[in-house]
Design a protein that fits this description.
This protein has 223 residues and is an all-alpha fold. Helix content is 63%, strand content 0%.
Length: 223
């Protein structure tokens, strides 16, 4: 009988494996890997496999946060009750679910937040989330205008920027929260989201804007 040999194809390292290995390296070594070559080699992989998904360690890290964001949306949208939520409730659900996901990765998250200076108003590592966040929020704002939860105003095209600032506030609040089971963060989410909708919904602010317009248009009467 003729003896044959089969060469087993090497299995490519997955995107998720690179992400997990990167997090583990940062937490165990306390620094970024020295090079992509060595990082891939330690995984019994190659630079070629790495570059299939990322072009740098920076893009790898952005992808981690982006994948968490996608996971958050998948979780909340997978709830059969979500479709019937008001826009306010959908944003509350998003923040609560996002924070629960961060809890599962707190060591890594805190490692990054601890490295920020007080001047870092927008952490660079969160830049990978922003395009996805803007799409998510803008869709909800449009939905809110249809349901009248969100008032149409001259500056309503800036609402997404305000919600992004609010998102950063929640992340930083949680990072500094020392309360049991992060109860203060839950309260901060509820109170800040409710305040946001009090401001962007129809109410006292609209009356103030209308009155301001009236005063401006009738300036001669007040001379």
């Amino acid at each position: 009988m003729e003896k044959t040999t089969a060469t087993k194809a090497k299995k490519a390292t997955s995107k998720e494996a690179f992400q997990e290995a990167y997090i583990e390296y940062l937490l165990t070594e306390g620094k970024n890997p020295n090079s992509i070559f060595l990082f891939a080699k330690n995984l019994k992989s190659s630079e070629n496999d790495f570059y299939k998904y990322f072009n740098s360690f920076k893009s790898l890290e952005r992808s981690i946060w982006a994948s968490w964001f996608e996971q958050t949306l998948k979780t909340i949208e997978g709830d059969s009750a979500y479709v019937d939520y008001s826009v306010r409730e959908k944003i509350l659900a998003f923040h609560y679910t996002w924070i629960e996901l961060l809890k599962n990765n707190r060591s890594f998250v805190m490692y990054r937040f601890d490295q920020l200076s007080k001047r870092d108003s927008q952490p660079e590592f969160l830049n990978g989330i922003k395009p996805h966040f803007d799409t998510f929020i803008n869709d909800l704002i449009l939905e809110g205008k249809d349901t009248t939860e969100v008032a149409e105003r001259p500056f309503s095209n800036q609402y997404s920027k305000l919600f992004w600032m609010h998102f950063l506030f929640i992340c930083k609040f949680w990072a500094n929260d020392e309360s049991a089971d992060f109860e203060k963060t839950d309260a901060a989410i509820e109170k800040s989201v409710n305040l946001a909708f009090d401001l962007i919904g129809k109410g006292a602010l609209d009356s103030l804007i209308d009155f301001g317009k009236f005063i401006f248009q009738n300036r001669p009467s007040f001379k």
